[in-house]
Design goal:
Layout: H1 3-23, E1 32-37, E2 40-43, E3 59-62, H2 77-86, E4 92-96, H3 99-106, E5 128-129, H4 137-146, E6 152-155, E7 159-164, H5 167-190, H6 198-208
Parallel strand pairs: 5-6
Antiparallel strand pairs: 1-2, 1-4, 2-3, 4-7, 6-7
Helix pairs in contact: 1-5, 2-4, 3-5
Length: about 220
């Protein structure tokens, strides 16, 4: 990869981090983003404000190893690495703490098929992974399992993860998950919402397959 392309990939991560905060799906430096890069990944550094983050602060890590001495990747590098290792179809991982998705995660609640757009996450639910301390192997195992045949999940008492074949798709899905969480939360203020059937969600997924949703 040329140096110009490498810098462009690193800048795309920084731009996406800033977009997360502007869109309201994240606050401060609590979120993190990774992007597959050959046999490794590029990932946001720990505790660096997005507004001042520079391309040379983005950390490169091999997918078959732990951080090298002196590297300071996000504290959540384990689940970024392990998701990319487990999912050849995934090239980008977005982790954030959107308010409504996090409310549901705190309650240990998955998002059921209250709206047909749930299909964009790969199934008829957005699962909530069990709680484990941040940055741990246990949390990583829970996240990988919750993302099996899915493109998004919640993390109990924590936040959410969205993945995609591109960073644009993962970012689009992260925003969509928060929209679904807000809609579900609103429904619960009224009562128990009716749910779409698994068959209908599969029908929606089939119809959406050729639409290129989340490409832009």
């Amino acid at each position: 990869m040329s140096n110009a392309n490498d810098r462009a990939k690193r800048q795309s991560i920084i731009d996406a981090c800033r977009k997360m905060n502007r869109s309201g799906i994240n606050q401060g430096t609590s979120g993190n983003i990774s992007l597959r890069d050959g046999e490794g990944m590029l990932i946001t550094p720990t505790s660096v404000p997005y507004d001042t983050m520079q391309v040379d602060q983005i950390v490169f890590m091999k997918l078959d190893d732990e951080p090298e001495a002196g590297q300071r990747p996000s504290s959540e590098w384990r689940f970024h690495r392990d998701i990319l290792k487990a999912r050849a179809d995934v090239n980008a991982v977005v982790h954030a703490h959107p308010p409504f998705a996090t409310i549901l995660a705190i309650m240990g609640m998955e998002i059921p098929p209250v709206h047909y757009m749930i299909a964009c996450a790969g199934g008829d639910t957005i699962r909530c992974a069990p709680y484990a301390s941040f940055g741990t192997e246990e949390l990583s195992r829970h996240a990988v399992l919750a993302l099996e045949d899915r493109s998004a999940c919640l993390l109990a008492h924590h936040g959410m993860i969205a993945v995609g074949a591109s960073l644009a798709k993962a970012m689009w899905l992260a925003v969509e998950v928060e929209t679904l969480a807000r809609q579900y939360h609103g429904c619960l203020q009224i009562g128990t919402p009716p749910l779409l059937s698994k068959a209908e969600i599969e029908n929606v997924r089939a119809r959406m397959a050729s639409y290129g949703i989340g490409e832009s």
